[in-house]
Specification:
With 251 residues, this protein is an alpha+beta fold. It has two domains: 131 residues, Four Helix Bundle (Hemerythrin (Met), subunit A) (Up-down Bundle); 107 residues, Nonspecific Lipid-transfer Protein, Chain A (2-Layer Sandwich). It contains seven helices and five strands. Helix 1 packs antiparallel against helix 3 and helix 5 runs parallel beside helix 6. The longest helix has 24 residues. The protein is globular, with a radius of gyration of 18 Å.
């Protein structure tokens, strides 16, 4: 995917997030984040958007703390989220291709990193807002979802802070069926997971992994981010590994 694709996804999901949150109400619980109410979701996402904007707009070379939470009424939070998302989109679109600033995952460029990371950050929290509203989850575009799986497995969980560990070495195979046609092999152990994208084949080979998870790219994307259940996803082999992922893989 291109930077322009990510910024458009960010714009669209930011609007969907704000709309769903506004309809749900600031005091509604967020089932996918049990300790949060919608006001916490809006506050967190708005802070992240403004934090990211600062790196891109000012070329900050070192990490900085999140900005302070706003002192706003509940009724003003959705518009505050919309405004921060709009500023982030505009900043990304106006940024030079040779932008230099701090990042925390490998990427083709800092600009590509921030566009991708914020698009997926916003998509996942859009799912949180829709869960709070209880109106059903809007599916992600297959290519975007496959990219998000890749970022999660190859990028986010490769860091030492990942808590997805197993006592004995295990292998998890994740296959996004349908138009996306993508697959990943994930080595689980007492160290951070090590994942690689592998060629997609019509069917996994016998003994290819201890556990195989198959589904559409969108369903897998939200399930691996723990934003939906495993319903509709085919799990074969050691089903306990799929359940363990849901228990231990929180970012």
């Amino acid at each position: 995917m291109e930077i322009a694709d990510f910024t458009e996804s960010l714009r669209r999901d930011g609007q969907l997030l704000a709309d769903a949150a506004e309809k749900a109400g600031a005091d509604a619980p967020v089932p996918s984040c049990p300790q949060w109410r919608v006001r916490d979701l809006l506050t967190h996402t708005g802070q992240v958007h403004r934090w990211a904007t600062g790196f891109v707009a000012h070329g900050r070379p070192e990490p900085v703390p999140f900005p302070e939470a706003p002192r706003l009424s509940d009724d003003a939070l959705a518009d505050w989220l919309r405004d921060g998302c709009r500023q982030l989109v505009e900043t990304l679109r106006a940024a030079p291709a040779d932008l230099s600033c701090w990042t925390f995952l490998p990427a083709p460029s800092p600009l590509a990193f921030w566009a991708r990371r914020q698009a997926h950050e916003t998509a996942v929290h859009r799912a949180d807002a829709e869960a709070a509203l209880g109106a059903g989850l809007t599916a992600a575009d297959p290519a975007f979802a496959a990219d998000g799986i890749d970022e999660l497995l190859v990028g986010m969980h490769a860091r030492e802070r990942s808590t997805m560990r197993t006592e004995l070495p295990k292998t998890l195979l994740i296959r996004a069926t349908g138009a996306a046609g993508a697959a990943w092999k994930v080595a689980l152990s007492d160290a951070p997971p090590r994942a690689e994208r592998i060629p997609f084949t019509a069917a996994p080979g016998g003994g290819a992994a201890d556990c195989v998870m198959e589904g559409t790219a969108s369903d897998l994307y939200f399930a691996l981010w723990n934003r939906r259940s495993l319903d509709g996803i085919t799990v074969t082999g050691e089903v306990s590994l799929a359940r363990l992922w849901q228990e231990r893989s929180g970012i």
